[in-house]
Automatic annotation (TrEMBL):
It is found in: Plastid, Chloroplast. GO terms for cellular component: chloroplast stroma. The keyword Chloroplast applies. It comes from the Eukaryota. This is D-3-phosphoglycerate dehydrogenase. The chain holds residues 88 to 401 of 633 of the full protein. GO terms for biological process: L-serine biosynthetic process. GO terms for molecular function: NAD binding; phosphoglycerate dehydrogenase activity.
Length: 314
């Protein structure tokens, strides 16, 4: 009946304020670490599903839902873990939280940029191992260097703003670049190749789509300045990880700092273990503040969709 309360499945950790909002509207079940099979058997009794990046919402999930599932809420920005085609075919909305973790992601990008340039992670491990290697860990300066921001959307432009504050020369590439935003921040918009040829540092901020998948490949690395340093807090899949390893081994890429991986957790241990690579476990959106905001933003969007207030796919 139309008065029946909605059943909302939350498959990854969500902030309490968001859960409360959901509970005021429906019956909320939090089940973390479900296997794909468990998710499929659970989903046919749910009206809404809320995920972060760890749950793959595949065609199988939408088929198993047998038409009951009305909305999938992605507690974050990227919806690359949701099969949008299958969602559309089964009449299910997909909504995301497009703004709540922008600054957290940008701050993590800057944290990795600075940590990488000064070998913070490597030096920390060395001191803790009882060593005192001051000459081994001489870093490089950020001031005056050229940073290419690849993807000049919400996160990319916040990274650019912060990098300007560090005295960097910031250029950006984005096929949909908002020129007024670039002008306002004093950022020069350039072509993909220009960015690759002139950057000392490259920071990735594009979504993972069929077009951006592995755009950083052997051919791309070959265009870069020798000794370039790369930060990725976007999606692992935009980098061909084997090609990155080759570029590190050949010295084209001096260092990389990676928060995201093609497969998470990553299997490719040679890249992860490389001494010039700094890694974190997909922490870009993980601040207390951002997670509190994301939970509310996604809960509002999901409740809106269940009430029939939304009609567009994210
Ligand atoms: C995002 O796309 O917003 C992030 O990947 C969020 C997350 O940590 O799941």
């Amino acid at each position: 009946s139309p008065n029946q309360r909605s059943t909302i499945l939350v498959s990854e950790k969500l902030g309490e304020a968001g859960l409360e909002l959901l509970r005021s509207f429906g019956d909320v079940e939090c089940l973390y670490d479900l296997s794909p099979d468990e998710l499929c058997s659970k989903i046919s009794s749910c009206d809404a599903l809320i995920v972060r990046s760890g749950t793959k919402v595949t065609r199988q999930v939408f088929e198993a839902a047998k038409g009951r599932l009305k909305v999938v809420g992605r507690a974050g920005v990227g919806i690359d873990n949701v099969d949008l085609q299958a969602a559309t075919e089964s009449g299910c909305l997909v909504v995301n939280a497009p703004t709540a973790n922008t600054v957290a992601a940008a701050e993590h990008g800057i944290a990795l940029l600075a940590a990488m340039a000064r070998n913070v992670a490597q030096a920390d491990a060395s001191v803790k191992a009882g060593k005192w290697q001051r000459s081994k860990y001489v870093g490089v300066s950020l001031v005056g260097k050229t940073l290419a921001v690849m993807g000049f959307g919400k996160v990319g432009s916040e990274v650019a703003r912060r990098a300007k504050g560090l005295g960097m020369h910031v250029i950006a590439h984005d096929p949909y670049a908002p020129t007024d935003r670039a002008r306002a921040l004093g950022v020069e918009l350039v072509s993909f190749n220009q960015a690759m040829e002139t950057a000392d540092f490259v920071s990735l901020h594009m979504p993972l789509t069929p077009t951006t998948s592995k755009v950083f490949n052997d051919e791309t690395f070959a265009k870069m300045k020798k000794g370039v340093r790369i930060v990725n807090v976007a999606r692992g899949g935009v980098i061909d990880e084997d090609a990155l390893l080759r570029a590190l081994e050949s010295g084209i890429v001096a260092q990389a700092a990676l928060d995201v991986f093609t497969e998470e957790p990553p299997k490719e241990s040679k890249l992860v273990q490389h001494e010039n690579v700094t890694v974190t476990p997909h922490l870009g959106a993980s601040t207390k503040e951002a997670q509190a905001c994301v939970a509310i933003e996604i809960a509002e969007a999901v409740v809106g969709a269940l009430k029939g207030e939304l009609s567009a796919t994210a």
